[in-house]
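Final report, results section. Input specification for complex C-07:
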Amino acid sequence: MKFLIATLLSSALISPVFFAPAAVASEPLRWGADIESGAPYSYKSTDDPNKIIGFEADIVEALAHELGMEAQFVQNKWEGLIEGLKRKDYDIVVNGLEITPDRAQEVDFSQPYYLTSETLAVRRSTDGITQLENLRGRRVGTLEASLAQRILQALTYPVEIVPYSEEVHAYGDLALGRVDAVLLDEPIALYYAKPNPELKLVGAPIGHLEYGIAMRKGEVFNRKLDEALGKLKRNGTLRAILERWNLWNPMTADAWGMDPIRRSAPVAYEKYLQTAWKKNSWTEKWDLYISFLPLLARGAFMTLQISMFSMALAMVVGLLTALVRLYGPRPTAWLAMAFVEVWRGTPLLIQLFLIFYGLPHLGIRLDPFTAAVLGLGLNYSACEAENYRAGILSIPKSQMEASQALGMSWGQSLKHIILPQAIRVVIPPVTNDFIALLKDSSLVSVISMVELTTIYGQLASAHFDYLGIGLLTAAIYFLIGLPFVRLSRYFESQLDTSILKPRANGWGPVPEALRGMFTWR
Amino acid sequence: MVVKVQDVKKKFHGGAVVDGISIEVEEGDLVALIGPSGCGKSTLLRCINGLETLDSGSVQVFQNTLKSPKEIGQKEFQKRAQAVRQQVGMVFQSFNLFPHLSVLENIMKSPRVVRGVSAAQAEKEAEEVLHKVGLSEKADHYPSQLSGGQQQRAAIARALAMSPKVLLYDEPTSALDPTLVNEVLRVMKQLDQEGMTQIVVTHEMRFARDVADRIVFIEGGHIVEMGPPQQIFGNPQNERTRAFLGNFL
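Structure output:
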């Protein structure tokens, strides 16, 4: 008995639940999705940008309730959803994931929570396109890696396929005449093409696809979740959710042995039409942008944090690499060179994927922030190493001779004479790299970091406003970088020896703490 | 004896530049090394403070003896060279002041770093040597703001701040405008009068004749003739010495 109590106590102490806020008494149901994929799946509410809504968000909420758990959303890019699941960043993926044999080898799928098909959209003025056969020789837009794309690829006659990463852009280009038709999942067509007065949906449903909940292979929990889903299906909860979002269709009704006629009003769909498709006046837009600022500021802060940590890492590793490459013994100098060439010569995106999704296969599991800083920092350290090397090489050899002739050791000469001069040379290229890093940091959204560009994508897709929100976001990037550009100019002017400086402080009024960074006294 | 060079040989890319030279320098001497360009006189000078390694022979400066790294090991050579440089200052043709530091900081740097002298003490000593070379009012200027002659005097002051026993000069006036040469030579003459031991590679024959205690004429890596100025300039024993000096007179 004593043993039992001790075990219970210790397990309570080490269990994460113990440390969680008191309000979360139940276990979390962590679900992964990319809310940039937008309505009707999961997207930021236009009323409250901190809230996530959509028919899938509703289904997860109902599931959590059924299981006595607390739904906990985890953002990740669509491309990384399955890998994130394997990394145990979340326990299920609910994001319009179609059940395919390929995916079923990677993950376990629940029974389908929705059945649907592909739908053709054309311009209102277009006649003569109502079925796949009419697409011969036409330009047809679709989403990358979707069933629609596979259907188009399987056609025996020539069709020019134009793959998009965002449905909004596919339908936008259709309206502009850049493509002749768009083939996409019915829910997408219903939410992005049907409300657009310039477009129309044509023809009968094409193909058949089933959305399922993806879970890590072989977990005991999977069965429990599937049973809960089955219960929600039978007791009409799922049907009510689908009706609310105007998604109840004959295909699903048929599969579940239910009546295809809707029983309740599609309130969520109507709300969506009223808000997302509303033409905002300029003052309304202005108010909207103001309301985005706290969210964008949070993203900007994350971007800044990642960038500064990465740059600090890049500068330290870069300097060490440059020194080893210039002055180290042959084998280590060669290694330093190889390090630079490999990190500089491979794409940052792939490096991030390898660090975040690849390393866990070797038993190294980094949290997103560490992985982001490590990826960006190491990638940029290769550039910084070359900057420093160039800076050091630009200092004449005679400077080293002069300081050694004065009795300084090689190391003292490097520290007190060569590096301070080299740093002056490398300030402009290093600043340049920092600004580049600031912008490249948007790539870390692929490893589930929510930073400025992620927030931009989510807001823009929820509001169909790529222009205004895009300009706003670009302006924020520009403003974040500006102080650093000014600071580097300031240092450059302070280090300029062509002007006379006040006595006993050759550096002018540089704050004492900053001076230390550059003088090594 | 302060500096004793014994049968020093040094090759670059297979060709001998210094091919067996021996010189002894007494305390307070000013020895002028003269000879045509490429004769090996600058290389010999750089062998004395270990900026160049020797292939064979030895250089003894007080109690420290530099030998070929092949003989004593690279590490030991660097260690001894650093010990030699504590007592031997050097002045370069192109001054080699530190452009990122003011004149005062140029002078203070080495005492601060190598000897760990306090900032106040280093500044006091720097002002003294600056006064000696007549540059007190330029203490806060940067090297790029000085004339060539002023830069070279600052470089001498920088070397003096380490209180060397011997000063080496590698063509100290060759990069200077002719009108600025004298201000540098004047400083060297003054140091000679104060008893400083100096070894000077130079093309200033008048200076060598008037100030040097001994002239060493080098050609092709060998000493051709060595002796007091009266002998070398007044009555050269060797045909080649005569031919070389003929260019100047």
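Chain B has two domains: 1-87+183-249, 94-163. The mean pLDDT of chain B is 93. This concludes the modelling results for the funded period.
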